Amino acid sequence: MRMLIAYPAAAKWTWSDPVAVANCDFSAAAIEAAMTPDTEVLVTDAMPGKLDKGDGLKWVHLLSAGYNQAIGHPLTTRPGVRVTNSAGLCAVHMAEFVLGQILRQVKRFDEMGQLHRAKAWPDRAAFATPALRGRRALIVGYGGVGRETARLLTTFGVAVDVVQRTKVIESYTGYLPDPDMGDRAGVLPQRRFTVAEMDTALAEADFIVLTIPLTQETKHLMNRATLAAIKPGAVLINVARGGLIEMSALSEALSAGRLAHACLDVFTTEPLPADDPIWVLPGITLTPHMSGVMPDAAHWHEDLLRQNLQRYRTGAPLLNEIRPDRLTG
Question: Is the pTM of this model over 0.70?
Answer without folding.
Answer: yes
